[in-house]
Design brief:
Layout (H helix, E strand, L loop, with lengths): L13 E6 H15 L3 E4 L1 H5 L3 H10 L4 E6 H9 L6 E5 L7 H5 L13 E4 L2 H14 L3 E6 L14 H13 L3 E7 L11 H19 L6 E3 L3 H6 L8 E3 L22 E6 L2 E5 L4 E2 L5 E2 L4 E6 L12 E2 L2 E2 L1 E4 L2 E6 L7 E4 L10 E5 L8 H8 L3 H7 L5 E5 L1 H4 L1
Parallel strand pairs: 1-21, 2-3, 2-9, 3-4, 5-6, 6-7, 7-8
Antiparallel strand pairs: 1-10, 10-20, 11-14, 12-13, 14-19, 15-16, 17-18, 17-20, 18-19
The chain binds pyridoxal-5'-phosphate.
């Protein structure tokens, strides 16, 4: 007999469970509310929910468009069989622009001729023109103007040149300009003066584009928060990400729309032990028991995307064990965290829900508040060694 113990796989360390019915539901709610086409944003692996599955659910819920940040993400969606309208907006220097132009599957409803790429500058338009010529195909180009975010997009001083180059390229047959768009800086603060300024700047860009002889088909400005809170910003379409996944785009300011968080993260207790007063917990003994208690070991850590800020001197995130909220105690380690069971008994193997939806379960928003961040970061960074599984709560009913 060998000394080697057999490798036993007892199933996943922890599971990210994504309810595709929640995504469908959220898209239906948003689409109904805004009354214009919805561009579902599925970048960064669908905000951690799985890009291809999230995209399918969003389409099933009525999203007319999908959008990603990078060209690679858009190509992955095409490779998954998605043939509908698709926008991407983050070109890296030297990115192969020929592939997105070629990855076109004509579908009758939209006669999509490829992936819509976004140009911020004349130099990018020049590169797209070269790619279009090389593949012998007209590109679909959307123009992004910077109206005050000071991130991607053409700065105002360059709009006239950008639009002139875009019009010339259209005449030469390099592309069709299919959209003009911009992005808000402060849409989660509806009263912030930047919102009005950006919307006025966007209207100025639209007017200048028209003066330049362009007829961009689709005008879009709003992300989730603006789509919900600022009807004047809806224009021809809205780009919704976080709300599609059921999280609040403007916590404390969004009316109750009945959005349902699609992601639940769960695992099991790996160990339960008793502590005496004075026992320090985890690295640095940053938490010391001041009374007898029980603690449980949760086998996930920052290696799995649990923010180390989930425990800090100012507070801690909570998990649900046996339907009760239990705070994290002591430093979050790479592979594990300890939670305070308050003297209650619990068994190894008892279910631990880190966050999700439903009664008694902490939300990603709760985690964001405990960690001093936003719900976007909580769901997008989670992963590591966890497995992702999909359920459909409407089909199971
Ligand atoms: C991520 C992103 C969105 C989606 O924003 P949400 O706040 O998640 O709705 C929209 N537009 C752009 C340009 C983005 O980068």
């Amino acid at each position: 007999m060998s000394d080697q113990p057999a490798v036993v796989r007892e199933g996943p360390l922890a599971e990210i469970v994504v309810d595709v019915a929640a995504i469908r539901h959220n898209v239906r709610v948003l689409r109904e509310l805004v009354g214009v086409p919805l561009i579902a944003v599925v970048k960064a692996d669908g905000y951690g929910h799985g890009m291809v599955e999230a995209a399918r659910a969003a389409r099933d819920g009525g999203a007319e468009w999908l959008a990603t940040a990078t060209v690679d993400e858009a190509l992955t969606l095409r490779a998954s069989g998605y043939a509908g309208p698709l926008l991407c907006w983050l070109m890296l220097p030297g990115v192969d622009l020929e592939r997105p132009l070629l990855e076109g599957i004509d579908v009758t409803a939209y006669s999509v001729a490829g992936i819509d790429v976004t140009a911020y500058s004349v130099a990018e338009l020049d590169a797209i023109a070269a790619a279009a010529e090389a593949v012998g195909r007209r590109a679909r180009v959307q123009l992004k103007v910077d109206t005050g975010l000071s991130r991607g997009g053409a700065p105002r001083s360059t709009w006239a040149d950008l639009f002139a180059r875009a019009r010339a390229g259209e005449r030469e047959g390099s592309w069709k300009v299919t959209g003009l768009w911009s992005h808000f800086a402060c849409s989660d603060e509806p009263d912030h003066p930047a919102n009005d300024r950006q919307e006025r700047a966007f209207l100025a860009a639209v007017a200048l584009a028209a003066d330049s002889g362009l007829e961009p088909g689709l005008l879009h400005l709003a992300n989730s928060a603006a789509a919900v809170l600022r009807p004047s910003s809806r224009f021809g379409a809205v780009r919704c990400g976080i709300a599609v996944y059921g999280l609040d785009p403007a916590p404390g300011r969004t009316p109750d729309l009945g959005l349902v968080p699609a992601m639940t993260v769960r695992t099991r207790l790996a160990l339960v032990k008793e502590l005496a007063p004075g026992d320090g917990v985890s690295y640095g003994h940053r938490w010391v028991a001041d009374r007898p208690t029980t603690v449980g070991l949760v086998p996930v850590g920052y290696g799995d995307g649990i923010p180390r800020h989930a425990f800090h001197p100012g507070g801690s995130a909570e998990v649900a064990v046996g339907g009760k909220r239990r705070p994290i105690r002591g430093s979050v380690c790479m592979d594990q965290v300890m939670v305070d069971l308050g003297g209650d008994t619990a068994a190894i193997g008892d279910e631990v829900v880190l966050f999700g939806s439903g009664p008694g379960v902490p939300t990603a928003q709760d985690w964001a508040e405990a960690c001093g961040t936003i719900n976007y970061e909580i769901v997008t960074r989670i992963g590591g060694r966890m497995t992702r599984t999909y359920v459909d709560s409407e089909a199971d009913r």
